[in-house]
Design goal:
Elements lengths: L1 H9 L3 E3 L6 E3 L2 H4 L9 H7 L6 H18 L8 H24 L3 H26 L1 H56 L3 H17 L3 H16 L10 H19 L1 H11 L1
Antiparallel strand pairs: 1-2
Helix pairs in contact: 1-7, 3-7, 4-5, 5-7, 6-7, 8-9, 9-10, 10-11
Length: 270
């Protein structure tokens, strides 16, 4: 029960109201409860396998065993072992269902498990009435009903929280992919601040001194920018664009550095 109450504080199944701005429960949760988002197999594989937290099993089983130990003396001696075993079996089944919903949190699966739990509770009620009689069965049936009710509520909240976790993971991966794309575009464009500033400084100096290199270098620099700037908006580019970038870059560096730039090339050719 403590686990369910703690989960409520983290649950975000509310949707903002357009009128008051307050959070309201979506109407579909009353008729067909569960997460509305359905993930494809590709999205689940992309989000990665996140193992079921085994600490939940330990916590729930410890609470159930403690409650059984406290109330064991009130159960008729002849039925105590069977009823205790039934409670533990229901708890283990509930945890198994929770793990299935953790792996695939869908609305259909949640409602099928909830329906199966309701039918199981009806069968349990009929069995207890046949074994203990009507009045005695009602007392023990309340315990089983409480386990089923808490389990169904926990399944519902677990499914919604799991969907939010997967959505957050997918958003994180999308952000990382977008950052990687931007980094590749920046690297592909090869626009380095010192290269731009040095080229502009050289052009300014040549214009002031009326150096004949100013015109040809300015044309090469313009071609370089025209070829590199569109790369920020495209994932790929043609070989002709690459050659244009290299040609313009070499022409600019040749004008700026002259023989000092061509020296390493000559040494490699030798």
């Amino acid at each position: 029960m403590d686990l369910v109450l703690c989960s409520v504080t983290r649950l975000r199944v509310m949707h903002p109201s357009s009128d008051t701005g307050k959070a309201i429960l979506h109407w579909s949760q009353w008729l067909w409860p569960g997460p509305r988002r359905v993930f494809s197999a590709q999205e689940m594989a992309r989000a990665g396998a996140q193992p079921w937290p085994k600490a939940i099993n330990h916590y729930v089983l410890a609470n159930v065993i403690t409650l059984l130990a406290i109330n064991y003396a009130e159960i008729p001696s002849g039925l105590a072992p069977g009823l205790a075993a039934g409670a533990l079996l229901l708890t283990l089944l509930s945890l198994w269902v929770a793990q299935q919903l953790w792996a695939q949190p869908t609305r259909l699966r949640l409602n099928l498990y909830t329906l199966a739990a309701g039918l199981g509770l009806v069968g349990c009620a009929l069995g207890l009435r046949w074994l203990l009689g009507r009045e005695a069965a009602q007392v023990h049936l309340l315990s089983y009903a409480a386990i089923v009710l808490v389990s169904c509520s926990a399944w519902w909240m677990l499914s919604l929280m799991r969907v939010q976790q997967i959505e957050a993971r997918l958003r994180e991966l999308d952000d990382q992919a977008q950052q990687a794309r931007l980094a590749r575009r920046l690297a592909t464009a090869q626009i380095q601040p010192h290269f731009l500033f040095n080229t502009l400084a050289s052009l300014q100096h040549w214009v002031d001194t009326r150096d004949p290199r100013a015109g040809s270098t300015l044309r090469a620099f313009t071609q370089y920018l025209r070829a590199t700037l569109p790369m920020f908006e495209r994932e790929s580019h043609s070989l002709a664009q690459e050659l244009q970038i290299v040609r313009s870059y070499l022409e600019i560096m040749q004008a700026r550095l002259g023989g000092a730039w061509c020296g390493p090339c000559r040494r490699r050719q030798r």
